[in-house]
Amino acid sequence: MDKRLSVLISPGNWDPKPWIIGLSASELIDEVHVWPTEANLDRVELLLVWQPLPEGVISKLPNLKFLSSMGAGVDHLLGDSQIPRDLPVMRIVDKFLAIDMTNYVLMSLMIYQRNYHQLVYNQKISNWDRIAYRKVKVGILGLGALGSHLANQLVNSGFEVYGFSRNPKKIEGVKTWSGTDLDTFLAQPEVLVNLLPLNDHTRDVLNYELFMKMQPGSYLINVARGGHLVEKDLIKALDEGLLKGATLDVFKQEPLPSDHPFWSRKDIIVTPHVASVTTPGSAINQVLENCANFLNNQPLAYLVDLERQY
Ligand code: NAP
Ligand code: GLV
């Protein structure tokens, strides 16, 4: 193959080094630039971008052929008028993203199911209390690359699993609903895990009205995006006992401001958007697979449907 690609990385606050090293090592890649740069970007054909998409970057790339999110989510790209409508946009679909997400949710479920905070407190006061635990019913909103991996693993780990997606899905051992059956789904589990993409159809979906449809005293795990959650509705639902607690990894504003009420609540566990972070060494293989597709005039994979918004 004679032709090689010029790439621009706009990594946001992520470390670009592993991406530069990994991409530069490939025979498919000619040069790797990192935004911001004064270099001439006229030859750049691929833009890799983590949040946010910098203002003005696309106008510097007259030869841009395709664009990829450096993570699973593409909400930072949706509706951005800088992106030409016909530009192919891809995202990362990677086994380590799925494994890490599943492990994070499992950890959260274990802390909840085993009443771990109480066990730790009991050690402090030398209290030998063999707290009983029960089987937990878990509902997963969104059965895509991450949600379906999670569903399978939770079944293997002995949880009773329910799932909801836009289109009907079959996953062994999981009772699933789709389309207009959201309310039936919501009535089943006592723990709800959100793994929806954030877009115009799903923004603010985790609101008081939805919490009312769940079993009283349920638990929420939001690992998708902060934009899914109406924060004041969560606080109201917790204060009223409608919900028992929540584990939140993602927030409307990140980093979560230091005076935000979530930090100090005993019934909320806050983690700093670490549930599942792209593993560059693995994700780069997917990007290179698409570079090869592009250079060989083959269809690109892992494309986002910009009309559907995920
Ligand atoms: P995905 O493969 O695109 O899956 C999305 C799932 O949501 C699909 O099952 C889809 O249904 C369903 N869905 C979409 N719109 C819906 C709607 N309006 N109503 C009901 N279901 C709907 O996405 P993914 O790779 O699993 O990732 C999910 C999200 O996780 C990402 O968008 C990102 O925001 C978040 N994430 C967070 C972290 C973190 O560290 N916290 C890490 C990675 C990803 P169909 O199957 O019918 O299409
Ligand atoms: C992380 O949040 C991702 O979307 O990959």
Q: How many beta-strand segments? A: 12
Order of helices and strands: EHEEEEHHEHEEHEHEHEEH
| Cα radius of gyration in angstroms | 21 Å
Which ligands are bound?
NADP nicotinamide-adenine-dinucleotide phosphate, glyoxylic acid
Structural class: alpha/beta
Write down the CATH class of the largest domain: Alpha Beta
Give the percentage of residues in beta strands. 15-25%
Query: CATH homologous superfamily name of the largest domain?
Result: NAD(P)-binding Rossmann-like Domain
Total domain units: 2
CATH architecture call of the largest domain: 3-Layer(aba) Sandwich
Helix content: 25-40%
Number of helices: 8
CATH fold naming of the largest domain? Rossmann fold
Layout: helices, strands, pairs:
Elements: E1 5-10, H1 17-24, E2 29-34, E3 44-49, E4 66-69, E5 89-90, H2 95-113, H3 116-124, E6 137-141, H4 145-156, E7 160-165, E8 174-178, H5 182-186, E9 191-194, H6 208-212, E10 218-222, H7 231-239, E11 243-248, E12 268-270, H8 280-295
Helix pairs in contact: 1-8, 2-4
Question: Overview of this structure, please?
Answer:
This protein has 310 residues and is of the alpha/beta class. It has 8 helices and 12 strands. The strands form 2 sheets. Strands 8-7-6-9-10-11-12 form a 7-stranded parallel sheet. Strands 2-1-3-4-5 form a 5-stranded parallel sheet, covered by helices on one side. α1 crosses α8 and α2 crosses α4 (145-156). Residues 71-73, 278 line the site of glyoxylic acid (GLV).
In a few lines, what is going on in this structure?
By secondary structure, the protein is an alpha/beta fold. The protein has 2 domains: 5-93 and 278-295, NAD(P)-binding Rossmann-like Domain (Rossmann fold, 3-Layer(aba) Sandwich); 95-270, NAD(P)-binding Rossmann-like Domain (Rossmann fold, 3-Layer(aba) Sandwich), CATH 3.40.50.
